[in-house]
Amino acid sequence: MNPCFSPAARPLSLILSALSALLCATAAQAASWTLRVQNAAGQPLADAVIAVEVKGQTGQAPAGTLAQMEQRSRQFSPPILIVQTGTAVNFPNFDTVRHHVYSFSATKKFDLKLYTGTPTAPVLFDKAGVAALGCNIHDDMSAHIIVVDTPHFAKSDAQGLLRLELPAGEHVLKAWHPKLGSPLLSSFTLRLVVGNEPAPVQLPLR
């Protein structure tokens, strides 16, 4: 056996350094976590937007990222769209009538005047927050685009559950729901410990 490759021949400091690096890498590995969202009474909350900001990870979407907010049967689809900052959104109209899509929200103000088909240029959402959408022709049309500074986001299902791939540790959790009545995302601390179920996220709805 070549002594140069014997563990005993390696300096202790190198062994400890390698072990420390291995432990850090293991801790930073992402795992699948189930998050539970509830209202103040502890009941499951559907359609809650959850975004988790991980320290050291970029908040901007890759260049050229596109999303789509459709208009079908005189409704927006989906009614809640979550995108990462830097995402461009198309607004195709699949109806036989024209729509006039707009937003007066501070997150993104825009005005797509009466049109059919798909506008030539998508709308760039470059600021985190909530953009409320409407149609200037059909008052019953409404939707929200939620812009988040993280690639880790999802919407809760009918049981108030969602799954995200995240490393263990302490993170910033951002949450929003239509019934919160706020144009801002609420902030919470999310602590993920290997072997423990995350605490439920409780939102104080109106």
In summary, what is this structure?
With 206 residues, the protein is mainly beta. The chain is built from one helix and 17 strands.
Give me some keywords for this one.
1 helix, mainly beta, about 210 residues, Immunoglobulin-like, globular, 17 strands, four-stranded antiparallel β-sheet
Gap between N and C termini, in Å? 72 Å
Proportion of beta-strand residues: 35-45%
Report the principal-axis shape: globular
Question: Mean of residue pLDDT?
Answer: 88
CATH architecture assignment: Sandwich
Let me know the CATH homologous superfamily. Cupredoxins -  blue copper proteins
Helix percent reads under 10%
**Secondary-structure element series:** HEEEEEEEEEEEEEEEEE
Would you give the CATH topology?
Answer: Immunoglobulin-like
CATH first level: which class? Mainly Beta
**Strand ordering within the main sheet:** 6-12-11-8-9
How would a crystallographer describe the biggest sheet? Answer: 5 strands, mixed
Helices, by number, come to 1
Roughly how many Å is the radius of gyration? Answer: 22 Å
What is the count of structural domains?
A: 1
Please identify the structural class as seen in this structure. Answer: mainly beta
Low-confidence stretches: 1-10, 12-27
Can you count the beta strands?
A: 17
Please describe what this structure looks like.
The chain has one domain (32-203): Immunoglobulin-like. The chain has one helix at residues 12-28; strands at 30-39, 49-53, 66-68, 70-72, 75-77, 80-84, 87-90, 99-104, 109-115, 123-125, 129-135, 142-148, 153-155, 161-167, 169-176, 186-192, 201-203. It has one helix and 17 strands. Helices cover 8% and strands 44% of the residues. The chain is mostly beta strands and 206 residues long. Residues 1-10 and 12-27 have low confidence and may be disordered. β4 and β5 form a beta hairpin. The strands form five sheets. Strands 6-12-11-8-9 form a five-stranded mixed beta sheet, with no helix packed on it. It has a four-stranded antiparallel beta sheet with strand order 13-2-15-16, with no helix packed on it. Strands 14-1-17 form a three-stranded mixed beta sheet, with no helix packed on it.
